[in-house]
């Protein structure tokens, strides 16, 4: 009998229970026992939900209080020595300090998990890294599942992926040198799981979708030959891309099963089916784990039937990847348009789709005839729905001429035009846009949404907040101000709510990092901007001060990347549509006298295809979309962009080709390492390397800021250097923000004096 299973489930909970639980612990409102009990309850709820939906086997180990890659580091006993913690006796407080930093130590670096909007904590690898199996946390969860009568499939980050996703902390250190010791630890973990009665272990190796050096492929083959000596059945899970280049190798590995992402890379199937070893399970990832569209049940069943004919019971069915990346349950969306709702499936619905596929395979199509009819109807209704297509949007796109995306003059001329009115000091200071989204701001928005306060009251509350932010920045003596983004729930959702072609949910939360979630809008139709989205707030902020206020927009690539995107058009075309909508806003801001405008593009790097061969095409359309979004502005209008949590080293020419006048980037967690790349590339325009990490509650010391700025001045000439934090300040509290910004301004002023004196 074919099994159905999940690679992972959204642990955050239907109502973000995990977020609220963890944040209560951080605020000392609950103790560790309550934290653990709450987490246990959530896990149990999710397993029972899966069991109720007919899953044969459930993932255990996909749950995490913060991040599964951090948990993997704890499991193998390899937490950075600089913290002085012992993984085996790690307290919850210490666990969260690894993730969020403490007074002495900065947090583990955080970066994007492949091409998703999920952020993981980066392991730190060095020659003296040691490992020690610490299976207790995982075994406890296995026991919880077993107590509920759940057949547990343990989920672990695979050893090669764990090593690859970590960073070598010493120049020239080869992470593979750690593999033998790490494998020994995995063997111990597997032995412990076996003793606990586990039969299947899923080892996630998504790095197989990347371009891996041969040495890593050889190491992977070798490792799995060793690990497969365990009496456990190993399911090697690949996802996010095509791994057919390794088909021959993967088919010969002595693992019990292999998972393939057949949504992202359906074309890879042929390479695997040819000569598929009879004794191996093929887990077919046929349900989209990265998007929210309802499956075309008929088409997927056809695929499954064909596979079943060849593989028999060795066929397993699953979503393409962990459901961590999808929202929890569509049933909660009672306000969503009914047509649109009928086109969607969230995690719970995807589990149900698997159940139907299994029934269809086992009992024949007639057993799911009604569901097939409903699915076909939804597909047809979506395809022909008039709200999806806007003639004017298509016409505007078609009218674009080559060069429509270029500014009229090159950067040096623009810089002169901007300097002549901006008259900024050397090393101008600014922030990235958001200021603390306090509980009061969110409560006001929640009350407005519930109809408890009217629009006028809501607007007054937000304007009061904007005024506070302006006054505080003036008092801190910051040079280029922002309005603080109080009125925005999220930098993408806010725009999605105001653009045609977008729908938004009430509870469609997806974990972004730690306790932080995002609610990606759904792009279902052609995109256009019916009316200005930010102008009145920005103009209001500018009316309060004589200093320049930066207009603040989210760029087209980021809006695309952080939304659930329609799958009936190429992403490049959807992106171009968004670019034109943002361009309307840019020109309106400029007309209203806002002549410094930031277009945030933190997701450019994340959108990069996993295989290098696909990079150029992506960078060409993504770059064009960014440039289109700011096309047509005057030379004297200064365009900023901002990017965070990304490795840019390998795409610097494309970043430079965006031709923003100023770019602010995250660099502080990596100790300005990133900036070195910008320096050696001779990045031509202005640049503001983030001088402190805003994702940690830690306040930077002035000495530390001085050192970072000195490093920055080593590679960027002073006249092109800006000073700013890493990213927006929305997640921080006011006392930290004021203290940190004060330190930043103090250090900048001292440095300015020194630089002026030395000229
Ligand atoms: C910059 N980043 C972003 C990414 N992706 C985005 N889509 N947006 C981003 O900003 N990816 C990379 C990084 C990730 N960083 C972050 C940083 C911070 C958050 C975050 O703070 N998320 C919030 C949710 C934000 C939000 O939409 N808030 C809404 C709803 C607030 C809410 O929960 N209200 C409560 C009631 C409140 C009350 O009554 O007091 C409720 O509805 O129950 C809003 O402000 O209106 C989070 O809390 O997780 C995310 C990614
Ligand atoms: N302007 C946004 C950018 C975040 S990446 C903010 O400041 O929050
Ligand atoms: Zn940012």
Automatic annotation (TrEMBL):
Q: How cofactor binds (record note)?
A: Binds 1 zinc ion per subunit.
Annotated positions binding Zn(2+): 642, 644, 666, 727
Please report which protein family the annotation says this sequence is part of. Answer: Belongs to the vitamin-B12 independent methionine synthase family.
Among InterPro entries, the record links this protein to:
Cbl-indep_Met_Synth_N, Cobalamin-indep_Met_synthase, Met_Synth_C/arc, UROD/MetE-like_sf
- Residues engaged in binding L-methionine: 432-434, 485, 600
Question: Which GO molecular function annotation, any one, does this entry have?
Answer: 5-methyltetrahydropteroyltriglutamate-homocysteine S-methyltransferase activity
Q: Can you state which reaction this protein catalyses?
A: 5-methyltetrahydropteroyltri-L-glutamate + L-homocysteine = tetrahydropteroyltri-L-glutamate + L-methionine
Enumerate the cofactors the protein uses: Zn(2+)
What is this protein's function? Catalyzes the transfer of a methyl group from 5-methyltetrahydrofolate to homocysteine resulting in methionine formation.
- What keywords are annotated for this sequence in UniProt? Amino-acid biosynthesis, Metal-binding, Methionine biosynthesis, Methyltransferase, Repeat, Transferase, Zinc
Q: Which residues form the Cobalamin-independent methionine synthase MetE C-terminal/archaeal domain?
A: 427-749
Protein name according to UniProt:
5-methyltetrahydropteroyltriglutamate--homocysteine methyltransferase
Keyword Zinc assigned to the entry: answer is yes
Classification via Pfam families: Meth_synt_1, Meth_synt_2
Keyword flag Metal-binding? yes
Residues binding 5-methyltetrahydropteroyltri-L-glutamate, per UniProt: 16-19, 112, 516-517, 562, 606
Biological pathway: Amino-acid biosynthesis; L-methionine biosynthesis via de novo pathway; L-methionine from L-homocysteine (MetE route): step 1/1
Name one process (GO BP) from the record.
methylation
- The record places the active site at 695 (proton donor)
What residue stretches are annotated with the Cobalamin-independent methionine synthase MetE N-terminal domain? 5-310
């Amino acid at each position: 009998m074919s099994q159905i299973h999940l690679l992972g489930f959204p642990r955050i909970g239907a109502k973000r229970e995990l977020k609220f639980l963890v944040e209560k612990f951080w605020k000392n409102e609950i103790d560790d026992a309550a934290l653990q009990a709450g987490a246990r309850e959530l896990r149990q709820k999710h397993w029972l939900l899966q069991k109720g939906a007919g899953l044969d086997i459930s993932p255990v180990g996909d749950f995490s209080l913060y991040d599964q890659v951090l948990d993997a580091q704890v499991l193998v006993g390899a937490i950075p020595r600089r913290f002085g913690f012992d993984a085996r006796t790690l307290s919850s407080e210490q666990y969260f300090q690894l993730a969020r930093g403490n007074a002495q130590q900065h947090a583990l670096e955080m970066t994007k998990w492949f091409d998703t909007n999920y952020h993981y904590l980066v392991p730190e690898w060095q020659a003296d890294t040691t490992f020690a199996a610490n299976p207790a946390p995982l075994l406890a969860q296995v026991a919880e599942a077993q107590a509920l009568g759940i057949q547990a499939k343990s989920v672990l980050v695979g050893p090669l992926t764990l090593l690859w996703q970590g960073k070598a902390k010493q120049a020239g250190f080869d992470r593979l040198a750690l593999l033998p010791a790490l494998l020994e630890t995995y063997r111990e973990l597997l032995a412990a799981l076996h003793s606990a009665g586990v039969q299947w272990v899923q080892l996630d190796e998504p790095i197989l979708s990347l371009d891996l050096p041969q040495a890593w492929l050889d190491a992977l083959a070798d490792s799995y030959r060793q690990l497969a000596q365990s009496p456990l059945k190993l399911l090697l899970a690949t996802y996010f891309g095509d791994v057919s280049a390794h088909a021959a190798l993967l088919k010969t590995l002595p693992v019990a099963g292999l998972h393939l992402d057949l949504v992202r890379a359906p074309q890879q199937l042929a390479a695997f089916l040819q000569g598929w070893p009879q004794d191996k399970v093929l887990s077919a990832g046929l349900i989209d784990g990265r998007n929210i569209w309802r499956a075309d049940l008929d088409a997927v069943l056809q695929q499954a039937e064909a596979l079943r004919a060849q593989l028999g019971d060795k066929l397993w069915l699953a979503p393409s990847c962990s459901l961590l990346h999808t929202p929890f349950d569509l049933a909660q969306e009672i306000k969503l348009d009914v047509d649109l709702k009928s086109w969607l499936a969230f995690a719970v619905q995807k589990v149900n789709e698997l159940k139907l596929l299994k029934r269809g395979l086992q009992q024949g199509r007639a057993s799911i005839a009604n569901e097939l009819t409903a699915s076909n109807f939804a597909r047809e209704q979506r395809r022909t729905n008039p709200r999806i297509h806007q003639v004017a949007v298509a016409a505007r796109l078609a009218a674009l001429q080559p060069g429509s995306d270029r500014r009229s003059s090159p950067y040096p001329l623009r810089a002169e035009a901007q300097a002549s009115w901006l008259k900024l000091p050397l090393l101008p200071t600014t922030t990235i846009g958001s200021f603390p989204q306090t509980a009061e701001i969110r409560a006001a928005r929640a009350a407005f949404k519930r109809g408890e306060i009217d629009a006028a009251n809501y607007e007054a509350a937000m304007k009061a907040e904007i005024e506070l932010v302006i006054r505080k920045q003036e008092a801190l003596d910051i040079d280029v101000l922002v309005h603080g983004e109080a009125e925005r729930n999220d930098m993408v959702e806010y725009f999605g709510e105001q653009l045609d072609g977008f729908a938004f949910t009430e509870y469609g939360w997806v974990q972004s990092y730690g306790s932080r979630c995002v609610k990606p809008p759904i792009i279902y139709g052609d995109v256009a901007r019916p009316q200005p989205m930010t102008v009145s707030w920005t103009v209001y902020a500018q009316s309060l001060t004589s200093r320049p206020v930066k207009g603040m927009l989210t760029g087209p690539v980021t809006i695309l990347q952080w939304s659930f995107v329609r799958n009936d058009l190429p992403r490049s075309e959807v992106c171009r549509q968004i670019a034109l909508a943002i361009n309307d806003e840019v020109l309106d801001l400029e007309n209203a006298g806002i002549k410094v405008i930031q277009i945030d593009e933190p997701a450019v790097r994340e959108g990069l295809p996993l295989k290098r061969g696909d990079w150029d095409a992506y960078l060409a359309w993504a770059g064009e979309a960014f440039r289109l979004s700011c096309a047509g502005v005057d030379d004297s209008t200064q365009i900023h962009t901002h990017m965070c949590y990304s490795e840019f080293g390998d795409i610097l020419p494309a970043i430079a080709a965006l031709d923003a006048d100023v770019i602010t980037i995250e660099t502080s967690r990596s100790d300005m390492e990133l900036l070195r790349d910008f320096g050696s590339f001779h990045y031509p325009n202005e640049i503001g390397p983030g001088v402190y990490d805003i994702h940690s509650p830690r306040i930077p010391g002035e000495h530390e800021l001085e050192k970072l700025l000195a490093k920055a001045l080593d590679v960027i000439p002073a006249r092109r250097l800006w000073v700013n934090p890493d990213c927006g300040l929305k997640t921080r509290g006011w006392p930290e923000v004021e203290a940190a910004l004060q330190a930043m301004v103090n250090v900048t002023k001292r440095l300015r004096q020194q630089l002026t004196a030395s000229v």
